[in-house]
Each structure stands twice: as C-alpha cells, then as structure tokens.
Write a structure and sequence with these properties.
- With 691 residues, the chain is α+β, with helices and mostly antiparallel strands.
- Among the domains are: 99 residues, Phosphorylase Kinase, domain 1, CATH 3.30.200; 172 residues, Transferase(Phosphotransferase) domain 1 (Transferase(Phosphotransferase), domain 1); 63 residues, Serine Threonine Protein Phosphatase 5, Tetratricopeptide repeat, CATH 1.25.40; 105 residues, Tetratricopeptide repeat domain (Serine Threonine Protein Phosphatase 5, Tetratricopeptide repeat).
- It is 54% helix and 7% strand.
- It has a 6-stranded antiparallel β-sheet. Strands 7-8 form a two-stranded antiparallel ribbon.
C-alpha cells in the first residue's frame, strides 16, 4: 500500500507467513484467517479450555526470532492487557516467554473495520456517523493515555465496528504493537502507517499522546472524504507532506461538508503538538459540534490553515459587528452576548477584555482559542493573563507516561496539593519535566507574572520548580509568596520543602502556621515531624485532629502509629476509613498486612487484590504468597509474574521457586538470576508507612 513502510521480515518471508487452519498457537486451534497486515495476521481460534472463540493476533515469525522484539512485545502486552474500556478490544491472554510465536488473544469483533467502511463508501461516510465513530475511538484512546499507553498506529484498519442494541460502536485494537516493532524497520524507525503518522515521529522528537490526536485527525479526514490527508505516491513525499505541507481542507474534496470542519482538521493536524487538541475527546467534541450545530455556520469558505476564525475589529457602536460575532460564537456553541461585546473590546486592544475572552473560551472547553487570547493579553503586559496562560499550559501539558505499573505522574502545579502528605519531589519523580515545552513556557509566564507581584504565580512557579528539582529557587518563591499573603497551602508546601532539605526547625514553624490557619495537611505533616523525633503523644493528637477533619493521609499515619503501639483494632478501623475514602493502594496494602496478621485471610486477600489491580507491586507479591500458601499456584504465579516484570525482587525469587517446584528449571533459573538471589528467601517488604 502506498505510504506504508513494510518491515523487513514480511518481505523476506513472503508467502510462508500464513498459518493453516487447524494449526495450534499457544494451545489455540486456528479455524480461519480473519485478516493480515504489516505486522502479522489475525485468526479466529478456539480457546484450548473454554467453549468460546477468540481473535488471535499472531506476529510474523521473523519478529519472534528477534530478542529485542520479544522483550518489547512482552512489555507492551503487559500494558495493553491492563486496559479495560468499552471502546478497546479486550485482551484475554498472551504468549509465554518460551512460546514459538508472539501472540495476543482478544475478544472477536464481528463487524469489520473502518477501512472496510471507507471501501464501501469511497466518497466518504455520513458526517454524523463519522462523529459518533470518532467519539468512541477518542474515549478509548483517552482511557489508554490516562493509563500510560500510547497507541502509535491509529488508522481506520485499527478501529473495528460492531452493531450493539444502542447502535454502532467502535473499538480500538493493536495498541502498542508499533512501538514494540520500531526497532525492526529501516530508514525512519517508524513502524506506524505513514499516511496517519504525526510529524514529530519523523523528526525524532519526544512523542506523547498528541501524536495519537494527530493520527485520529488523519483518520477523521479519511472517513469524511474517502482519502488520506496528503495524497502522495511514495514514502518520502508522504513524510515531507506531514513535516511541511499545511493541512488540507476536507471541503476541497467534499464541498457539502460543514465549514467548521476546516478548523477542526487544521487544529488536529497542526505541525506543533501544543497547538493541537489537548485530548482525543476534545477533538471528538469539536467534530460533533461541527456536524450537529451548523445552523449559523459561515456561508463563505472558512479560511484554511488557521487555528481560529478571524474576527474583524468593528467601529465603536457597530451593532452589526456585535451580531456577526454572536452568530460566529453560536456556530461554535459558545454564544454569549457578553462574550460578543468583550470580543469587540479585545479586538480593539483592551488587555482586560482579552483575558476575559480567554477565560470564557477556557470555561467552554475551547482551549486553543483560550491560549490565543491569553497570549495576546500576556504579550501586552497583563499579569493575570500571564498567570492564566501558565496554568492552562501546565494543566494541559502531555502526561508523563509511567515506565511501570508503579510509576507516578506529577500533580499539576495549578492545583492545591493539600490532600497528600507531601507533593511529589524531584528525588522521587520518575519523569524529566524539563523536556516538556509546555512546562518551560508555563515557567516563563509564571516568572513574568511573579516578578510583577502576582502571588498565585509565585506559588505555581515554586511548585513547578520543586517538581523540576530546582529546590533553592522553589524555596525562594515559596517564601516570597508566603510573606506576601500567608496562604495556608503556600506555608504547607514551604514546610514540606524545608523538611526534605533537612531544615526541620523551620519546617515545623511553617507547618504550625499553616495548621493554625486551618490546613489539615499541615496538621498531619506536623504530626509526622513530631513522631520522627519521638513525640508520639502529640503526634497522635495531631493525626486524630486531621483525621476527624477527613484528611486521609492523617488516617493512614494514625493507623500506622496505632499499629506500632499494638492497638490493632483501632488501627484497623482507621485503615478502613482511609481505604474507603480514597482507595490509596498503600493504605489497602497496609490494611491487608494487618488483617493477615490478625488471621482474617479472606479480607486480607480482598484488600491485597484491590491494591494489586491498581499497580501496587508489594500487594501483588503478598497476594501471590497468600494464594500459594493455600495451594492456588496458577493464580499465585500470575501475581508473582505481574510483580516480577516490574522489578519486585521478592516476587522474582518466589516465581523462580514456584517454577522450580514444578520442574521448569530453565525459567526458574532466569528469574533467580534477575533477582540476583539464589536460595536466599526474600524478606517481607516493609509496609511503606507514612510516618
């Protein structure tokens, strides 16, 4: 297919790639081939034990022979299998490390894919049908992004459709396969289909979820017009078009389409990731708006290759211009007479009006337009707009994808971090925040506003600097903000930072000031400081005060302190209250440990399982040990393996011992080596207390 890069394995192996019906892969018996692509083929197959059919994705044999691909595929399969969403094809199982083939078993979807729909309607699908399909795909993609998974190959062939009682539903498939195979292609190192690939992937820039937004935009264009956005004849010209050609108008191919779709396509296919929609759902919402709210859409051709429609300044008192602004806003579902009037003032250079227009757009979810207006006001010197632009950039910066189930994502600095014991520190963060352009720009705007005396900007700048590891600069800005207005959250964060820097006396003073101002997080952390120097009675009193006010961190700390004192019933009660309140995985894990020690094994198992399914590796390991202890070795093996693949050494050893016990010595030896232990029983993982 024009525009595809075909991996070398496919061209080398040619016709030998297809497996015959009746062949067995991973115990599944193949009954028929459903389709094939650049990476492998999909077969309808019978489950080896259950009376049901599955869709079995089998990669071509050459991939299985490459150790790098096997490792990458195993990593991606672990992430993919964790995705549970109604618009993502469910993954049931995957190959074992020693299997000949690399495969995934999935729920079969009966209705074909979007590529088949395009072939059946080559002039483009009904726009409202397209909008519904894009909404489904966007929901699945955003769920994956929130869970740290990029698709990397969004295209019509990877979106399946099926009829349901409530209508047609779209499902995403083939998550992460492109990433696992990126090491096996030539030239660009990009395995995804070129016609839908974001330009930053060719430029070897950092890639985040907005690459999937771009690909979904290309898919949208294809569904609407029957053609990919850039109609080229060879891979080199396709890459060049993505890198340099402006996004085309779908109405050049299908003039009857709503005019506002030009703006949607232009935004989704922006060359600069920060100028695209911040989420796939934001793209989908704008598509729906474009095809369902077109009564007042402009009758003239909408300008191609612009971020937002241009608003012409009007003379004072020109009510016709106000009306025209109102019609345009109504076509975008943003109609508000006050906003139309503000637009006129903003167009004439009123920076306060520009800032208010930005706020109105942001409140309606029109983030691209909000950035434009904030930036205009900020460049003209409006400090409030500088602050608002910084917050918008920071809050919608790309998520830093967790490298494992146990990784963390920094809390956005625009939010008050008073509900956690301490904000994420540079010492514990797993991501390099200095490499994210939005955060660098946000920092610059915060500095400009902070230097002009904006205390909110001082606070947000301090939080951002702290997350980046610039602790001295962060401390200085916290102090300036605290001295200027004495906000409890500022004093609380300053106390936390000083504690981490070893300045315990000052930390205690700031925590006391914040606690006296009513900050429950400061009350709890003041208790932590006092408990650390042995003042358990006062610490317990502070914990109880914050816990009764609803602070879940204080509940955890109080439970841990009571557990150490041997007051197990009271400790159990506070663990339960904290777990029920916020479902923190460490709370659930600690509660499981306490219940197990008290002989309540059934409840312990439930809490371990709750913590394990949200990624707590200690809970995975402890759950495996509990299950193994009562003879459920298969389930125990699964949990040991889940914990082991993300680095839990105790789970590696226990998995090795379990495998060795049933004679699988080679696999056992591998896990022993990975744990760097042999014949040494692991110590129980400590309870990760918050004291």
């Amino acid at each position: 297919m024009s525009g595809d890069l075909i991996p070398r394995y496919r061209t080398e192996l040619g016709g030998a790639l297809r497996l015959r019906p009746g062949s067995t892969v991973g115990g599944y018996v193949l009954t028929e081939m459903l389709g094939g692509g650049a990476y492998g083929a999909v077969y309808l197959a019978k489950h080896p034990r259950l009376e049901r059919n599955v869709a079995l994705k089998v990669l071509y044999p050459g991939y299985a022979a490459d150790p790098k691909v096997r490792i990458a595929f195993d990593r991606e399969a672990t992430l993919i299998a964790s995705l549970d969403h109604p618009n993502i094809v469910a993954v049931y199982d995957r190959n074992d490390p020693e299997d000949e083939h690399l495969w995934l078993s999935m729920r079969p979807v009966a209705g074909g894919d979007l590529a088949a729909l395009i072939n059946a309607e080559p002039e483009g699908l009904d726009p409202q049908r397209v909008a519904r399909l894009i909404v489904d795909a966007a929901r699945g993609l955003d769920h994956a992004h929130r869970n740290g998974v990029l698709h990397r190959d969004v295209k019509p062939a990877n979106i399946l459709v099926e009829q349901h009682p409530d209508g047609e539903r779209a499902f995403l498939t083939d998550f992460g396969i492109a990433r696992a195979l990126d090491a096996t292609v030539t030239a660009t190192g990009v395995t995804a289909t070129l016609a839908y690939t974001a330009p930053e992937r060719f430029a070897r820039q950092a890639v985040d979820h907005r690459a999937d937004v771009y690909s979904l935009g290309c898919t949208l264009f294809h569904l609407l017009t029957g053609h990919t956005p850039f109609r080229t004849t060879d891979p080199a010209s396709t890459i060049a078009a993505h890198l340099s050609e402006p996004p085309p108008s779908p109405r050049d191919l299908r003039p009857a389409l709503p005019a506002y779709l030009d703006i949607v396509i232009t935004t989704a296919l922006s060359k600069t990731p920060t100028d695209r929609y911040s989420t796939c759902s934001e793209l989908a919402e704008n598509v729906t708006r474009a095809v369902t709210a077109t009564t007042y859409a402009p009758t003239m051709s909408a300008p191609h290759n612009v971020e937002v429609a241009t608003l012409t300044p009007a003379a004072d008192g020109d009510t016709g211009a106000v009306s025209n602004h109102g019609l345009l806003l109504e076509s975008l579902n943003l109609y508000d007479p006050e906003l139309a009037t503000l637009l006129l003032a903003a167009d004439s250079g009123d920076t306060t009006a520009m800032n208010k227009v930005g706020r109105q757009h942001e409140e309606h979810g029109a983030l691209t337009e909000a950035r434009v207006w904030y930036r205009r006001a900020a460049n003209a010197g409006h400090t409030g707009a500088m602050y608002n632009l910084g917050v918008l950039l920071e809050e919608h910066a790309p998520l830093q994808l967790p490298v494992s189930l146990g990784s963390t994502v920094p809390i956005p600095a625009g939010k008050q971090p008073g509900d956690s014991e301490e904000p994420t520190s540079a010492a514990t963060a797993t991501n390099d925040l200095g490499d994210i352009p939005e955060l660098t720009e946000a920092e610059n705007w915060y500095r400009r506003a902070a230097n002009a005396g904006h205390t909110g900007a001082m606070y947000n700048l301090a939080v951002l600097l702290e997350e980046r590891g610039q602790q001295t600069d962060a401390e200085n800005w916290y102090r300036r903000a605290a001295d200027a207005e004495g906000h409890p959250a500022t004093m609380y964060n300053l106390g936390n930072l000083l504690k981490r820097r070893g300045k315990l006396g000052e930390a205690e003073n700031w925590h006391r000031r914040a606690a006296n101002a009513g900050h429950t997080g400061a009350v709890s952390n003041l208790g932590v400081l006092l408990a650390g120097r042995g003042e358990q009675t006062e610490a317990e009193g502070l914990y109880r005060r914050a816990a009764h006010a609803g602070h879940t961190g204080a509940m955890r700390n109080l439970a841990a302190l009571l557990e150490k004192k041997g007051e197990l019933t009271d400790a159990e009660n506070w663990y339960r209250r904290a777990a029920d309140a916020d479902g923190h995985p460490t709370t659930m894990y600690n509660l499981g440990n306490l219940l197990k020690g008290r002989g309540k094994l059934g409840e312990a198992e439930n809490w371990y399982r709750n913590a394990a399914v949200v990624g707590h590796t200690g809970a995975m390991y402890s759950l495996g040990a509990l299950l193994e202890g009562r003879g459920e070795r298969t389930d125990a093996e699964n949990w040991y393996r889940n914990a082991a693949v993300v680095g839990h050494t105790g789970a590696m050893y226990s998995l090795g011992a379990l495998l060795e016990g049933r004679g699988e010595r080679t696999d056992a030896e591998n896990w022993y080596r990975r744990a760097d232990r042999r014949r040494e029983p692991p110590s129980r993982e400590p309870g990760n207390r918050f004291d």
